[in-house]
Design goal:
alpha+beta, Immunoglobulin-like, Cytochrome Bc1 Complex, Chain D, domain 2, 2 domains, five-stranded mixed β-sheet, 8 helices, binds dinuclear copper ion
Length: 353
């Protein structure tokens, strides 16, 4: 390991500025060290045997060797164990990176040819920049308005594809204040190489100052609440049962029973699909009457609606582990013949808890 410690000082790697950086580098350098070790060992052994067993007389016939079981087992088992070790270590890092963190500050990121937009929890937006508080766990929920992009922060050793039509997640804890590169790492058209920016890690107090200095904007969930009303979502989705659509209070993170008998977890992907393609999964006990909002909303707006739906479930919805506690699944009431005229009467009934 001391060789590794020395290698870590060599400045051919980007700075280590996140909680993942050190272990990713250790892993990378270990692979490197293993490769060098075996390359050199094989080259030296080959040279040695070439010289030792070179033909000395023109009529020399070498002695036949009939194989050696012990040797063959050794050179099979050792590489096997090394591969298993590499797999195990790599899988562990992968698992950490792709498991959703708890209690993380969530920032919404949308990629668009050729810029990165981000929206902070309190509403501040930025383009091609990302200001972050030092030492805080950050989760990015990302999607694309057009084609595939990839959000790459070399100093954090994190890179995640940003895919149109779905949400991807990446997370990290910045461990060092400073300004770092942000790249798009997926070829996305003419200006791909210009789809770059800065990640600026600030001391928590400076981050608060930065937030305060920005233009006042409504938080994603507040904007989502306005959208929810202006799109008239609240004429069918009440904050309690009895609407033409299921109540959305507490739905986020809960298990939803579907018309076809299956169950889904109401995560971001499910909510997005239900907004853009409502016919895809019908909640048990409801009619497929919701119109699609495909083409009427930007990805940013869909994220804002989801942020609002999350916020009305905040009391208990986040605890996906105990589905029993989720507010009465709307299976019971909603008779198929529910009088459609009752809906307009409930306008304005949508309240934030
Ligand atoms: Cu976006 Cu390359």
């Amino acid at each position: 390991m001391s060789l590794l410690t020395i290698l870590l000082q060599v400045p051919f790697l980007p700075e280590q500025a996140s909680s993942f950086a050190q272990e990713v580098d250790m892993f990378y350098l270990s692979l490197w060290a293993l490769t060098i070790f075996f390359s050199v060992a094989v080259a030296v052994a080959a040279l040695f045997f070439m010289l030792k067993y070179r033909r000395r007389r023109i009529d020399e016939i070498p002695e036949q060797v009939e194989g050696a079981m012990a040797l063959e087992i050794t050179w099979t088992v050792i590489p096997f164990l090394i591969s298993l070790f590499i797999f195990g270590w790599g899988a562990k890092i992968y698992y950490q990176m792709y498991t959703e963190p708890k209690d993380a500050m969530e920032i919404y990121v949308t990629g668009k040819q050729w810029m990165w937009r981000a929206q902070h929890p309190d509403g501040i937006r930025e383009i091609n920049q990302l200001h972050l508080p030092l030492g805080k766990r950050i989760k990015l929920t990302m999607t694309s308005e057009d084609v595939l992009h990839s959000y790459f922060i070399p100093a954090f050793r994190t890179k995640a594809d940003v895919v149109p039509g779905r949400y991807t997640m990446t997370w990290f804890t910045p461990t060092k204040a400073g300004t770092y590169h942000l790249f798009c790492a997926e070829y996305c058209g003419t200006q791909h190489s210009g789809m770059i920016g800065n990640v600026i890690v600030l001391e928590p107090s400076e981050y608060q100052q930065w937030l305060a200095g920005g233009p006042k904007e409504a938080s994603p969930s507040a904007t989502g609440q306005k959208l929810f009303a202006s799109l008239a979502c609240n004429t069918c989705h009440y904050d309690k049962d009895g609407g033409r659509g299921p109540s959305l209070a507490g739905v986020f993170g809960s298990q939803v029973k579907l018309e076809n008998g299956t169950t889904v977890i109401a995560d971001e992907g499910y909510l997005r699909e239900s907004i853009l393609n409502p016919g895809a999964k019908i909640v048990a006990g409801f009619q497929p009457v919701m119109p699609t909002f495909q083409g009427q909303l930007s990805e940013e707006q869909v994220l804002q609606l989801i942020a609002y739906i999350k916020s009305i479930g905040a009391q208990e919805g986040a605890v996906a582990a105990k589905p029993a506690a989720s507010p009465a699944p709307p299976t019971a009431k909603a008779s198929p013949a529910a009088p459609t005229t009752q809906a307009p009467a409930a306008q304005g009934g949508q309240k934030k808890d």
